[in-house]
Write a structure and sequence with these properties.
about 35% helix, 10-stranded mixed beta sheet, 21 strands, about 500 residues, 9-stranded mixed beta sheet, globular, alpha+beta
Length: about 500
């Protein structure tokens, strides 16, 4: 397409990607990479304060004590009479604390205050119904599927992230945050947000009490997933599938660019939206395979997921890329058990850090057998639950191409020219159970490449290399209770 030109390696890559996913050409100066949770929260609140027409927030949940954020939203709605708010969360996670204060009860108060301008939708997985829904404890029922999308849109700007909206994500939980100041990008993702809302429950305050209820409006574009899960999957697939068409994007998402054709010729960056709606839609996995294929001109890559359990296809792709004859060096970053959000958690969820250690060990055993040039590094910044302790929730990919191995001929790496940002943890659960959205961004602008490099290095700063022997040591080895719990979850149709 016009507007983007670059070295042969990138031109060949984008030619392949153009056949897999939709494409939006933008300028590199329309992207801002935020550094940490405090900057993310400041940016989000500032954007909401200045909102004029719309705010749409897709998130797993909003913390039930986020009164500051709710107050910011209330002030924005009060000061801008034309402003409308749409919030999408997950029904299971959003009602977990009911009948105590919860995400749902807090958002119901917003609906009460601004009934004509606030809509709250809650997605419910079709995978947890009937006896299974009644049997699985609330604390772990998210293992059967979630609304995991994170999209934070205000007017014509959007933040793509993996962060949810609660105090730890605003203070001491490390994630990633890319701000896109583009009406075309924002419009595209707003249409996906709207489509998921149209197949989700509607939150309504209960007029007879201070409680709330979830209803299934007759105007919804799918049957209730609790009563007709197969019909729901079919209808939701029909609604979302057009957003993945690389050739003919749906009319609702193909807003004409506001900039002139001459300005479009100056675009130097491409964004490919990614969508996963199990079990029928997944553009992220084929895009990742294409990006990390052994035929591409990669010189190095970094892969990260806070909850490390890569899908088998991703594992095979990384091993093939980093083994002979390609032998592309790779860094894999994941959370130390002391930076895992479930560290010292009560009940079954407290077994999860050890379970992820067990999965890391399996991965490193596969690395050894393949003789792959992959280093596993664990991220730790203090200890969860202790003063100055952080958790790690970042996920993504950075790819540096050999074509860009030098800058101005001085032999120094400019940085990654491609990165993947979004909600997915790249796990079997992400692709078999959860609703995910992300983007692959490719640029030939060296300033943006250096920005990607700084982001990558800022995460690596808090890591140390961990080997197979470390993971297999007595104090790290997963016990029988951990392995048994992993087996039970898998047998019951869930996933980590």
């Amino acid at each position: 397409m016009p507007g983007f030109s670059g070295p042969e390696a990138l031109a060949g890559l984008t030619a392949q990607l153009d056949r897999i996913a939709p494409r939006i050409d933008i300028r590199s100066d329309q992207i801002d990479v935020l550094e940490g949770p405090q900057q993310f929260y400041r940016n989000l609140k500032d954007a909401i304060r200045h909102a004029k027409k719309r705010v749409f927030l897709s998130t797993l949940y909003i913390g039930n004590t986020e009164h500051d954020l709710i107050s910011t939203i209330q002030d924005a709605l009060s000061s801008a009479p034309e402003l409308k708010l749409s919030i999408l969360t997950d029904a299971l996670r959003g009602t977990r604390e009911d009948p105590e204060p919860s995400c749902a009860s807090m958002l119901a108060s917003l609906v009460t205050q601004f009934p004509d301008r606030v809509e709250v939708r809650m997605y419910h997985t079709p995978n947890l119904t009937g006896l299974r829904k009644r049997s699985v404890p609330k604390r772990i029922n998210e293992g059967w599927g979630l609304q995991h999308i994170k999209l934070y849109g205000v007017d014509d700007q959007i933040i793509l992230s993996g962060a949810n909206l609660s105090s730890d994500y605003f203070t001491n939980r490390q994630d990633r945050y890319h701000v896109f100041s583009s009406d075309r990008v924002t419009h595209y993702f707003s249409c996906i947000h709207r489509a998921v809302c149209d197949v989700s429950f509607l939150l309504q305050p209960d007029p007879t009490s201070s409680s709330h209820t979830l209803i299934w409006p007759s105007s919804n574009r799918a049957p209730n997933p609790l009563y007709n899960p197969k019909g729901y999957i079919g209808a939701a697939t029909s609604l979302l599938l057009p957003f993945t068409n690389p050739h003919l994007p749906p009319s609702s998402s193909s807003q004409p660019p506001s900039s002139s054709s001459s300005a479009l010729q100056k675009t130097d960056t491409v964004l490919y939206p990614l969508l996963s709606h199990p079990p029928t839609i997944n553009t992220e996995l084929p895009v990742l395979r294409t990006l990390l294929s052994s035929s591409s001109d990669l010189s190095s890559y970094t892969f990260t997921a806070g909850y490390f359990n890569p899908h088998p296809i991703i594992t095979r792709t990384l091993l093939a890329l980093s083994s002979k004859p390609c032998s592309v060096p790779g860094n894999v970053l994941t959370a130390s058990p002391f930076a895992n959000g479930f560290y010292n958690s009560s009940g079954v969820s407290g077994l999860l850090p050890a379970a992820y250690t067990h999965l890391s060990l399996r991965f490193m055993q596969a690395v050894r057998r393949a003789r792959a040039s992959i280093k596993l590094r664990e991220w730790q910044r203090g200890i969860v639950g202790k003063p100055n302790g952080w958790t790690y929730h970042a996920k993504g990919v950075w790819a540096t191409f050999a074509t860009f191995a030098t800058s101005a001929g001085h032999g120094t790496a400019a940085g990654p020219s491609a990165t993947v940002i979004g909600s997915s943890n790249y796990t079997t659960r992400s692709y078999d159970l959860d609703l995910e959205v992300g983007a692959l961004v490719i640029t030939n602008d060296e300033t943006l490449m250096r920005t990607f490099k700084r982001e990558e290095e800022a995460l690596e700063k808090w890591t140390r290399e961990i080997g197979e022997k470390d993971l297999a040591s007595k104090n790290r080895r997963a016990g029988w209770r951990v392995r048994a719990a992993m087996w039970v979850v898998r047998i019951l149709g869930g996933a980590l």
